Structure formats: C-alpha cells, structure tokens
Amino acid sequence: MALSRQDYIAPWWTYWLHNFPHLNFNFQTVDKTFQPEDASYQQSLIFLACVSAVGLGLSLMVLSAYLTCLCCCHREEDEEVKRPDTCCVTWAAVITGLVICSAVCVGFYGNSETNDGVYQLTYSIYNANHTLGGIGSLVGNSLGSMQVGLKEHLERLDEIFSPQGDYTQTLRFMQQMANNIIQQLTAMPDTRKVQVDLAAIADKTSFIEYYRWLTYLLLLILDLLICLIACLGLAKQSRWLLAVIMVCAVLTLIMSWVSLGAGTATAVGISDFCVSPDKFIVNQTKDSLSADIVHYYLYCSQSLPYPFQQFLTIFQRSVTTMQIQVQGLLQYSAAMYPTAEKDLLGIQRILNSSEFNLHQLTALLDCRSLHEDYLEALLGVCYDGVEGLLYLCLFSLLAACAFCALLCAVPHAWTLIAIRDRDYDDIDEEDPFNPSRRISTYNPSRSQVHSFCSYSSSMGSQTSLHPPLPSTTSTPEYMNQSMLFERNPRYENVPLIGSGSPPPSYSPNFQRYCRFPGSSSSRSLRQHEMRSFNRSSR
C-alpha cells in the first residue's frame, strides 16, 4: 500500500522552535527557511548559541559578586559570636543534589532519544542510498550489454547473413531497437551523484553523532561524580574536597552553558528543516534530478504522473520485439547458417538478462520504497531527535542552576568547617577541667598532693590547705575510686578544707559562654561546673 505524504506532520515543538527569532550579527531579522549554506542563516544560529554565552557571563558575574561580597563582608568572628546554624547549608546541599540527580536522569533520557533519532535517520539514508545504488547498477549493466555485447553479435551476424537481404533487414531493425533502449537508458537520471551525496551525509552524520553522544555521556558522568564528591566532602567536612568541588563545579557550569547553546542552535536549525523539508530537498537536487521526479518520490501520490512510464514502456517493447526477431532467426536460419546459432543464442541471453533487469528496475523505481525511507528519516530526526535535544537543553539548564547554587553553598560550608576547627583548638591549657591538663599534672612520684585553689573572704582567709597523707600510706577511698576507672586521680574529688570552700576556677571558654546566659552552650557548661562544685563540697 502506497504511503501518503500526509502521513508526516511536523510536531508542535518544531513549530515552537521555528518561531524563535532569527537575527544576524547586525540584529536584523533573516529568513527562517532552512539554508545551512547561507551566511545570514548561519549567523542567526550562532546568535542563538551566543544567548547561552550571555547567560554564562551573567552567572559568572553574579557568582563573582556574591563571593566577593562574602569575602569582603566576612569579619573575623569574636569569641562572643555563636556558632552559625548548619541547617541552611544542609538543606541547600540536599536540594542541589536532588536537582543534579534529576537533571542527570533527564540528560540520559534525552541523550538516548537523540541517538535513536539520528540512528533512524542514518539507517534510512543508507537504505535509500542502497536503492539508488541498485538503480544505477541495473541501468549501467543494461547499457553496457546493449552497447558492447549486442553490438558485437549483430556485427558478426551481419557478415554471416550478408547474402540474405531479409535477414540483414531484420538485423538492422534489431539494431534500431537496441538504439532506442540505449537512448532511454542514457536519458535516465544519473543516480551516482545523488548516491555519493547521501553516503557522505550519512557517514558525516554518524561520525558527529558518535562524538556528540560520547561527550554528553562524559558530561553526565562528571555531574554525578561532582555530586558524590560534594556529599562526601560535606560529610567528611574536608576542605580539600570542597576546593576540588569548587574547581570542578566552575568547569561543569561552563560546559553546561556551552552545551545549552549548542543544543539550542542545533534544535532550532533542525526544526527549520522539519517544518518544510520538501523545499530544501528540491533545492538541493535541482542540479541532478528534475522537479517532477523529486516530487514523485517526496509525495508518492497516485495523482502525480509516473516520470519513468515512457522509459519503461519503450524498454519493454523493444526487448520484446527483439526477442521475437531472434526467435524467428533461430527457427529459419539455423539450418542454412549453422555458424549464426552461437551469436543468436548470445543475443537471446543478453535480451533475457535485460528483461530481468527491467523487472528489477521497475520495482526499484517505484516510489514506495524511497518514500518510506524518507518518512522514516523525517520521523527519526524531527520527533525523536529534536525531542531528545530539548531534554538535553533542559538538562543543561538544570545543571547550570544547580551548580550555581552549589557554588554559593560551598563557601558557607567552608566557613562552618573553619569555625569548627577554631573551636576545637580554642582550649585553655590552665583549665582544671581539661583532661589533658589533669593527666599531665599528675605525677605518681610526688609524695604529696597540694591544693589547687586558694580563697579569701571577708570572714577570713586561708592561704593554704593542709596536705593529705603521704602517698606511702593507705590510699583514700575517693582516690581508689578514681584510679579504678581512669588510672588518674581526680583532683576535683579532693575534699576542700574549711566551711568557706572556694569555687572551682573557670576557664576562658566558660567565662565567654557566661556572657550569653541564654545560649545552650553556657547553660550546659554551668551545669557541669556546678555539679563538680557540689561533688567537691561533699
């Protein structure tokens, strides 16, 4: 069943992309017709690609301004400043990771759809190229056999049948039929040039598509790796991982905007072709094929005239007439001219081969095969191909936004890690509650344990405390309990002498937190100091 040209309807997204403004470098509107060889049309596609370059420049400017303000406005935090809240950074990292993962999923789908569409396009082009190659081969073989083989046999038969005027007249008639066939075969359009063009287009398209698919695949994998490294860096709170993330995120941000520009320009160009593909093909084949032949294959309608009807009719009638003449010569002249039988049988084989080629040529010249390949190519590039490019553009846009957010969140994570490291290092060596100081001040060889506090009040003063019993005597119970668990004495358990027991000394950290009575850190430290004081009083 012949396919109707109306089976192809350009999808709505191709019309949407086709309506994008086409401006040259002088900001003048150009024709939207697909003309890849026209300089103005090329400038319009480059202009669309440069729009993403503007987006890249704005993103880098905003990030630079943000980071500059963050560095300039950042002051060294005093000891009174609380530790910043990590909730915003955590949620920003989580949302950014989810957006990147979603963008990667969209990118994988779009890359696969584009690859399927281009594969369908190249497969259809190779099929059409094979059909055109078969037509050219059949025409060439038939033309060669008529011009060389048939001519040689007729010349030898003319010498053999020279005494017989009727036979020579039959040979001249056969030569006239052969000339008619040669004339029709010569008038056939040369499909070899079209075949070479289609093969070059298919090979170039396959080459470009392979590297396009590979580039997007590497970009998708890179985005996933950066997302995983970001999660690892935030979990480990590693500064060098965050530095690696910053560098990779900037590079990926640039590649995302570049891929967005290239994908947009390519999608718009293909959409311009998909909206009116027939006009472009007619313009490209006007030098090698006539307009009626091109329209016959593009539309494949029964209302259009068959451009090869005259050629096939003359070919068929000439071959049939020559076969009848050869059959008559074999029947009547074989007894009189036995040497002519070999040449007559040779002519018969050539005619049978030409008739077989004629049947094959009739099938290949039918519009259904080439028209089906044409429709498959259009459906592949205009539906799957352009749809996949749109998904890839969406992936590039989401990835660019996500990496912008990531670049804004990483400096805050860096600041939190710096504050954490500073808090860990801010430990007073003279703090009696510092475990390292308690371990370092304990010396088993010392025979006495001296008091660590002094106290003076309005009721009197105690300048010193009586030392405990020497270490050579039995160890007090409170010392045994401490040694049982830590192998070190706990000086805070030493009973303080006198009713006016002095409070424990406070570390600078404790004094700092006491300035903020509402903070959770100050409350916890006060409770710890009061518990220690109560134990020592008892």
TrEMBL record:
<keyword id="KW-0472">Membrane</keyword>
<keyword id="KW-0812">Transmembrane</keyword>
<keyword id="KW-0813">Transport</keyword>
<dbReference type="Pfam" id="PF04906">
    <property type="entry name" value="Tweety"/>
</dbReference>
<keyword id="KW-0407">Ion channel</keyword>
<feature type="transmembrane region" description="Helical">
    <location>
        <begin position="45"/>
        <end position="67"/>
    </location>
</feature>
<keyword id="KW-1133">Transmembrane helix</keyword>
<comment type="similarity">
    <text>Belongs to the tweety family.</text>
</comment>
<dbReference type="InterPro" id="IPR006990">
    <property type="entry name" value="Tweety"/>
</dbReference>
<keyword id="KW-0869">Chloride channel</keyword>
<comment type="function">
    <text>Probable chloride channel.</text>
</comment>
<feature type="transmembrane region" description="Helical">
    <location>
        <begin position="88"/>
        <end position="109"/>
    </location>
</feature>
<dbReference type="GO" id="GO:0005886">
    <property type="term" value="C:plasma membrane"/>
</dbReference>
<keyword id="KW-1003">Cell membrane</keyword>
<protein>
    <recommendedName>
        <fullName>Protein tweety homolog</fullName>
    </recommendedName>
</protein>
<keyword id="KW-0325">Glycoprotein</keyword>
<feature type="transmembrane region" description="Helical">
    <location>
        <begin position="389"/>
        <end position="410"/>
    </location>
</feature>
<dbReference type="GO" id="GO:0072320">
    <property type="term" value="F:volume-sensitive chloride channel activity"/>
</dbReference>
<keyword id="KW-0868">Chloride</keyword>
<dbReference type="GO" id="GO:0005229">
    <property type="term" value="F:intracellularly calcium-gated chloride channel activity"/>
</dbReference>
<dbReference type="GO" id="GO:0034707">
    <property type="term" value="C:chloride channel complex"/>
</dbReference>
<keyword id="KW-0406">Ion transport</keyword>
<feature type="transmembrane region" description="Helical">
    <location>
        <begin position="240"/>
        <end position="260"/>
    </location>
</feature>
<feature type="region of interest" description="Disordered">
    <location>
        <begin position="517"/>
        <end position="538"/>
    </location>
</feature>
<feature type="transmembrane region" description="Helical">
    <location>
        <begin position="213"/>
        <end position="233"/>
    </location>
</feature>
